[in-house]
Fold:
Amino acid sequence: MVLGMRVLALSLVLGSICASNAASHSLKYFYTAVTAGVDFPEFTIVGLVDDEQFVHYDSNIRRMIPKTEWINKNERADYWDRESQKQTGPQQTFKANIGILMQRFNQTQGVHTFQWMFGCEWDDETGATGGFSQYGYDGEDFITYDLENQRCVALAQSGFSIAQKKNNDPARLEHWKYCLTQECVDGLKKYVSYGRSALERTVAPKVSLLQKDSPSPGLTCHVTGFYPRGFMVTWQRNGEDLHEDVELGETVPNGDGTFQTRSHLTVKPEDWKSQEYTCTVQHKSLEQDIVLSVNEENIKRNSDIKTLCFNPDDSSPPMGVIIGCVVGALILILAVIGVVIWKKRSSSYKTTNT
Structure:
């Protein structure tokens, strides 16, 4: 799981399609601490199974709560009591860490974030597993844990001394390895058994074409309402795939458990009116690819499509936290009320072989 990886956009999407295979499952947690003084909890935990949020905790409610029916039905009250009590320590630690990092960066005020993402992946056909753990500060990579070599790696110069200190504690490094390769995987297997029917469902996407006039002219292929997360969107001109002037937007959740994304093609109206342009969408739920021809009849105005991060059945945005993916390449991307969210640009994490 990832908030970003060293891969090209096309490879990223192809990886998402592979990761959507029913045999491959992932468990991810995002811990986020925010400086006091903003209209947002100082500490938040979001847990995801196969990129679907299933638990939530924050320092305001001080309670771990279920976010899916399948976890709520399968865990009793004592489970939620234990999970809630376990967060008291991390909540205090993360609050202290923000203060320490502000001193390290000579910061005395402002809104700052400290984040930790960790999790694991499991292929229930091959048995292959993988784990990952990484820290970020103010939207930038900070320290990552190299599971293969069992050591911490600083991703910013300011993190060198911290990584070195952690590497001098072999017992802790061994404990992290156990947590990622044993405890996390055991938890993932249990959660998949709880929600397999929901996690392995497929929902077909709806595709629309939008015309954009500024700041750069072009067309947007808007894809929404699909599950699982993996997909591929491509543009063609006269039957040939286009790779230049194409920008793929982030994949974000709708309020109903499905996802949406968009792909933008920079092209002048006189070009798409005089030549044959198409947008093609591939998804696991489709027996045949969806192919939309670019013409006046198929193009809608931006106002006809609800904006990203909104529930298609509701005009209001979802709760303050928006998890968007990486997942696989990507993920899990928390954006709220002026808080700059960490989009990881690099990671040593390697997905399982699906």
Q: What stands out?
A: Helices lie at 9-19, 69-74, 77-86, 88-104, 160-167, 170-199, 269-274. The radius of gyration is 21 Å. Confidence is low (pLDDT under 50) at residues 1-21, 306-354.
